[in-house]
Design a protein that fits this description.
The chain is mainly β. It has two domains: 168 residues, Jelly Rolls, CATH 2.60.120; 151 residues, no CATH class. Helices cover 6% and strands 39% of the residues. The protein is built from four helices and 21 strands. Strands 1, 2, 5, 8, 9, 11, 12, 15, 18, 19, 20 and 21 form a twelve-stranded antiparallel beta sheet that branches.
Length: 341
């Protein structure tokens, strides 16, 4: 799809923001300025280990490993992702910088796994083609026992000189995405709100307008979600009102809040679901997430400008999440999603 249509939407949930919010971060390797979807960022002018910059947020208490089919990439409902929002890796060094990340385990081991394209990532050890943002999937992590942290690596190779790198990094993201079971109803709505513009009419009939904001703030020297130097024609605050009908109970909440279901005396993995994968790690709307209305749009970088899915940093604009039963073990639900910065 295109033209801002909503397909089967995807929610990218940031584990780093969640662990920072609950205080589960190791201050000995503190990179708080890079954690959070509205973080402040920093510039790096020196490197270590032959032209590499490592930014390594880790946790005090490890997170449990996701489901096996999520780790090996066979799940259709969820997967692990990593990325950087707001970087100049394509121009920080003469030949550009590559971006990847390794996941650390509590036993001291770690794994890069395998990566695949979401947006602006062309392959392992390959410099990203454009400044702006990078997102990619992490798979082939079948040996993952838990998640102690993640080590982001920006690098150019052994020929790099420390003084020749001027890397800017705004926000790092790592977590799990969740695909809705199916597309929303046709009664959905999407709007652009300009709540930062206030207009008054004077006694003389003149119109005075003051704009506190009319679009998301820039990420460094580029607009939010801009790629390279291609213009990004966007303003306003996007809002989506979505209704989903006939969702299975297993797609909404877990079999048990312990996360497992039991067959006789044996425990089995539960299924990915809206409550555990989305509501829990956003604290019911307290934390933002990355919303993709139509992830079926495949990134393509050889065009001018590149083709990429639409993304937005959002929050839920709801005080409660209600589901309505319409048949045996089948429910309807509504969500309101508002762009946030």
């Amino acid at each position: 799809m295109a033209y801002q249509n909503v397909g089967t939407p995807r929610f990218y949930i940031d584990y780093l923001s969640y662990n920072k919010a609950i205080g589960n971060k190791d201050t000995s390797t503190d990179h708080s300025k890079h954690i959070g979807l509205n973080s402040s960022g920093a510039t790096y002018t020196t490197t270590n280990d032959n032209g590499k910059v490592w930014i390594s947020p880790v946790f005090v208490n490890p997170m449990p490993a996701p489901r096996t089919d999520t780790l090996d990439g066979t799940s259709t409902s969820s997967g692990l992702f990593m990325g950087c929002l707001g970087h100049n890796a394509a121009s920080a060094y003469a030949t550009g910088m590559a971006i990847d990340a390794t996941i650390a385990y509590s036993d001291g081991n770690s794994s890069y796994g395998s990566d695949s394209q979401i947006a602006n990532w062309e392959g392992y050890a390959t410099p990203v083609p454009l400044n702006g943002f990078t997102l990619n999937k992490k798979t082939d992590l079948s040996g993952l026992i838990d998640i102690k942290g993640i080590y982001f690596r920006f690098y150019v190779g052994s020929e790099a000189q420390a003084e020749s790198i001027n890397l800017f990094v705004k926000s790092l993201v790592f977590g799990q995405y969740f695909n809705m079971p199916h597309s929303p109803d046709l009664s959905l709505s999407m709007s652009h709100e300009y709540d930062g513009i206030k207009t008054v009419t004077t006694k003389g009939g003149s119109t005075l307008s003051n704009a506190n904001y009319h679009k998301p703030p820039r990420w460094g020297d580029r607009e939010a979600w801009q790629l390279g130097d291609f213009p990004y024609y966007y303003s306003g605050r996007r809002t989506w009102d979505l209704s989903f009908s006939y969702i299975s109970d297993t797609d909404i909440e877990p079999y048990s809040y312990y996360g497992n279901k039991y067959t006789n005396d044996s425990s089995e993995e539960g299924t990915d679901n809206w409550f555990q994968n989305v509501l829990y790690y956003t604290m019911g709307g307290h934390l933002p997430f990355i919303f993709c209305p139509d992830p079926s749009i495949v990134y393509y970088s050889d065009g001018s400008p590149p083709r990429a899915p639409e993304f937005a940093i959002c929050r839920f604009d709801m005080d409660s999440f209600k589901r309505e039963q319409v048949a045996n073990n089948v429910y309807n639900m509504k969500v309101k999603i508002v762009e946030s910065w």
